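This part of the workshop introduces the protein records we will be handling. The structure tokens are whole numbers drawn from a learned vocabulary of backbone shapes. The record below serves as our worked example for the rest of this section.

===
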Amino acid sequence: MKKVLISVIVFVVVLVAASPMLGQTNPLWSQEKVKNYLPHMTVPDVQEFLAKSDMALIPVASLEQHGLHLPIGTDYLNGVEQAKLIAQKIDVLVAPILLPGQSPYHMGFEGTITLPATLIQEVYVEAVKSLVQHGFKRFLIMNAHGGNRAITTFIVDRINQETAGIAVDLGAVTAPFITYGRTMEPQPARSVLDRHGGTPETANSLYLIPTLVDLEAAIPAELSMPPHLEAMLPDVLAGDPTALAVFLVEGLKDESTGKGTSSIEMSTTGVWGTRDPQEATVERGRTAIERFVDGAVAFIERWNEMRPPGS
């Protein structure tokens, strides 16, 4: 019995010696190292990456309310997750820079953080200058928040005009490579507005960040828009491009502009749409994300053919 006890003690001592951090690590840590994801990489990892690729993918996101059922970090998290999925299929460095973006029209809901457009531009351009100094040459700027569209355009142009880097808007260059097959889940007729925080964004989140979606908390929003926007809504839903353009020019604007179209002024939940977000499905999100990822990979492959890494 004494020998058995001694053996057990020796075993425990060896085990503890071999695992000095056993029982002492952060109980909340749940991440695994992701390939080509800059925050997880070491200096040797980046050096090894630069030997085979000179391309970085930078999401431009936001930190804003997404109704009662989606996290405030939806745009940032979904953007980064999509970028990481692309980077598993082809060598491109995923380099997230900022969580917040331009979201003044969501400030009526607690938790939203917004930054000036000029400041956002400066941060991304300066970050790119750092990456250029390390040997990166090509940049895919991926807008992960609709309100950043103009900012993304300026960031791409400034990189091309002010640095040695070469940049493109990933959404724009990917569009021609996206295929819409028969496997896409049938979509209902557009009889109601279904935009920010609605079923498309909820479906994507169910696929990309499922543990952060509280679908049971989702309820249809009640909307109240200025009369002239309400009057043009049928044309918007019918697909009239002019109506959509004019509708979005005024819709979702900072409360201080007096347009009466900030999210708190138009929506009871923060969702810009009246369709029930609970109608979203994982399959719809998977299909949409896989189409985008495959399209992005196809573009990157073509770009590498025309301009091989390091050339």
User: Anything to note?
Assistant: Confidence is low (pLDDT under 50) at residues 182-189. The first helix runs from residue 2 to 18.
